[in-house]
Specification:
Helix content: 40-55%
Distance between the termini: 23 Å
Strand content: 5-15%
Structural class: alpha/beta
Largest sheet: 6 strands, parallel
């Protein structure tokens, strides 16, 4: 952990509202439903329709379905093709919910924070439907609803664009200076910074840690437990 306990306590003291990225800090959405297979299927679907030319050589071997979706959107923004590809990704996200792995301590952290009166929201590049399904299944939807701000048909507004973070701020009536974003990707950090909110990185492995450090994140935890411990100490 690169964020000391005093630093975590300061973030908790500041935060009247907390925004969670979904896939990472809340759960591993594709833990049992491989993301690389979803990306592979996206590429195959495009190639079967004679659309392989839409993808650069590197993208054809991409293991991240969101990168494939963005690559197509850059070539044909807001097209029927992109809408269909996005709908297929939403379907795969919904399937993935069944085998998603909860992030350790996330459920307890969410419930504890909500019980203190802090307002919570999800700000994610995932589709809002699967997010709601997952949270309902874990008994967490009441901690967030209706504040789930996910992917829209306008894919240019995905993080690192601050659009979903700013929607969350408006929906909560939140002061950016009193808001904390928890995310595990460089895009989360950049969106939070652009929206003027505080950021805490969650890095479950060395690769995530390296990405967050390189982008400039200063406070990073490798587990949500220290955050939960500090929050419980305040109660």
């Amino acid at each position: 952990m690169t964020g000391a306990t005093d630093d975590l306590r300061e973030l908790i003291d500041i935060a009247q509202c907390v925004l969670f990225d979904f896939d990472g800090p809340v759960c591993r959405l594709f833990a049992g439903h491989s993301a690389w297979k979803v990306a592979e299927e996206q590429v195959r679907w495009l190639e079967e329709r004679g659309l392989h030319g839409l993808l650069a050589t590197g993208v054809r071997d991409e293991t991240d379905p969101y990168v494939v979706l963005r690559a197509v959107d850059r070539r044909h923004p807001e097209s029927d093709l992109v809408a269909e590809l996005e709908a297929r990704l939403t379907y795969e996200e919904q399937k993935a919910v069944i085998s998603a792995w909860p992030t350790a301590y996330a459920d307890a952290l969410i419930r504890t924070w909500s019980a203190t009166g802090v307002r919570l929201a999800v700000a994610t590049n995932n589709a809002p439907g699967p997010v709601g399904t997952y949270l309902t299944g874990r008994g967490l939807i009441g901690c967030f609803a209706p504040h789930i701000y996910g992917r829209t048909q306008n894919l240019s507004l995905l993080k690192p664009d601050p659009h979903c973070v700013e929607r969350a701020l408006r929906g909560l009536g939140a002061d950016p200076a009193r808001t904390l974003m928890i995310g595990d990707a460089d895009s989360d950090y950049l969106a939070a910074r652009a929206a003027g909110v505080h950021f805490l990185g969650y890095a479950r492995n060395d690769r995530k840690m390296r990405v967050l450090r390189e982008i400039g994140a200063e406070q990073i935890v490798t587990s949500l437990k220290p955050l939960l411990d500090v929050l419980k100490d305040k109660k």
